[in-house]
Design brief:
- The chain has 263 residues and is of the alpha/beta class.
- The chain folds into 2 domains: 118 residues, D-Maltodextrin-Binding Protein, domain 2, CATH 3.40.190.10; 105 residues, D-Maltodextrin-Binding Protein, domain 2.
- Helices cover 41% and strands 19% of the residues.
- The strands form 2 sheets. It has a 6-stranded mixed sheet with strand order 2-1-3-10-4-11, sandwiched between helices.
- Helix 4 packs parallel to helix 5.
- It starts with a helix and ends with a strand.
Length: 263
Amino acid sequence: MRMRAYLWALLLVAVILEAAAFPGSALAQARNPVVFAAASLQDALNDVVAQWQRQSGKKATISYAGSNTLIKQIEQGAPADIFFSADVDWMDYGQQHNLIKPETRTNLLGNRLVLVAPKDSAVSVDIRPGFDLGAALKDGRLAMALVDVVPAGKYGKAALEKLGAWNGVKDKIAQAENVRAALLFVQRGEAPLGIVYQTDAVADPGVKIVATFPADSHPPIIYPVALTKNSTNPDALTFLNFIKSPTARPAFERQGFTILGPG
């Protein structure tokens, strides 16, 4: 499955780069808006794209990965039209490096951070200051997105540090390239516990939420969205406005997101 997903990703990049290389071609003119979106948005944003297609007859192409990976790809010239980040830091990076159009930036969504286990697990964890997460792991590892760069990993590390639990698990972390990859470790039973967003846990019937981290144990989880600086696709702003519209709101709320901005 990973190899198939990798090949599809290569095909998507090839199509996008061809359109960028030949801006006057029919391919470039007909190109769908391209959205680079945080992996945790996958289920909700797929629903939004399907709804937009039903209503407008138009499509959008979505590339999902960690926010850090996506903004670096944009910086290197990847022809994205919209950047949808899982934290403000990487959107700030994009703005500071003149990669987005600041006037289109909106803090749109909020999320929660949770501890998950495989659905048939009997583990019980009480998240509180000084709790011993290492004991709950026993000989296993804690699945997390990359703790120094990927938003979900950064939030998770911050929460564990604030609660005094980081030192007990820092040598037991199974780091993944994004939050959905961390979730997969748990779903497959390769890790007995993982830290992901509430919306990821809701989307995967193979895991269950063991506990929710206090909101004040980590920085607020905010998803900003904006047009990229180099976007010239006339449908990009239309789709961005649709993402922020009341019409799209239920798709995000069904997955457990909270709405912070317009809509």
